[in-house]
Specification:
With 285 residues, the protein is of the alpha/beta class. It contains 10 helices and 14 strands. The strands form 4 sheets. The protein has an 8-stranded mixed β-sheet, sandwiched between helices.
Length: 285
């Protein structure tokens, strides 16, 4: 790429840099972008770059592949209910160990190695996430539902220039460990912070009318269309908690929420700092 082309890209990005300067962006990181070293590097670079230009980035993560690997090593069967991992007490403790330990600290180290300044947190820190056992839709075991976000610890980190990296586990009032869907955690945190943008990285290009045909991408989805799309089966399985999170976040004041393809290198920058946009954007109009 010629120097002039590079300069034009930066100039084109300027209005978006101004738009997001000083604003809070919540990114849910997961899927193949956590497995592929190339994609992981691109995501961490995007996060550090956004932070460097004055965007307050909050990174929320799960760690499904790492949890699956550990459960497999321990000969513990994995099963899902309505797109959510069923979690018994033993599995909940393993989830906490993997997410708050290996995964979280690995991401913090990666960001710091690229020149960022990250701090590792989980829902238990500062009683950030108040949770109860999730009961709607079936028995999920030790899967939590967020009832309140105590955002002070996140805001303190952001105000001091840190990038909070948050693992999606928490404790209830009795001290029981609960696994929480990372998409849901990201949406709840975005709503509590009145974020400018919520981005959920996935392993598909967005919401498809036909899950087998990428040409059927729904580029923009009105909140009012979601119940119909669920009824038609367009929204199903693992997409349900992602889209429910986007809908809830926008209803509670988040300016934009989008599901984007984490398999594309620098998809975060493409979505935020260009007029192209990728994935599915959720809004009221």
């Amino acid at each position: 790429m010629k120097n002039q082309e590079k300069a034009e890209i930066l100039v084109d990005a300027l209005p978006y840099i101004n738009k997001y300067y000083g604003k809070v962006i919540v990114i849910k990181y997961g899927g193949n972008a956590m497995v592929s070293e190339t994609l992981k590097q691109a995501v961490m670079q995007d996060v550090v770059l956004l932070n460097s230009i004055g965007v307050k980035v909050v990174l929320v993560h799960g760690g499904g592949p790492e949890i699956n690997d550990m459960l497999k090593k321990m000969a513990i069967e994995t099963k899902f209910v309505n797109g959510l991992r069923y979690t018994d007490k033993e599995t909940a403790n393993i989830v906490q160990m993997v997410l708050s330990g290996k995964v979280n600290k690995g991401l913090v180290n990666h960001i710091n190695s690229l020149g960022g300044s990250a701090i590792g947190l989980s829902g238990t820190d500062g009683k950030m996430l108040e949770v109860v056992k999730k009961t709607e839709g079936g028995d999920y075991g030790y899967v939590g539902e967020v009832v309140h976000v105590n955002s002070k610890v996140i805001c303190d980190a952001l105000d001091n220039g840190y990038i909070p990296v948050i693992a999606s586990v928490a404790q209830d009032a009795e001290g029981n460990i609960f696994n929480i869907n990372a998409d849901t955690v990201a949406a709840e945190i975005a709503a509590a912070l009145k974020a400018e943008n919520l981005l959920l990285l996935t392993d598909i290009i967005g919401l498809l009318r036909d899950k087998n045909d990428e040409s059927t991408l729904i580029a923009k989805c009105l909140l009012s269309d979601v119940p119909y799309l669920k009824k038609q089966g367009v929204i199903s399985g693992g997409m349900i908690p992602k889209i429910d999170g986007c809908v809830e976040a926008v209803r509670r004041g988040v300016k934009q929420a989008a599901i984007i393809d984490g398999r594309i290198e620098h998809s975060i920058l493409i979505e935020m700092l260009s007029n192209k946009g990728i994935g599915t954007l959720f809004g009221n109009e």
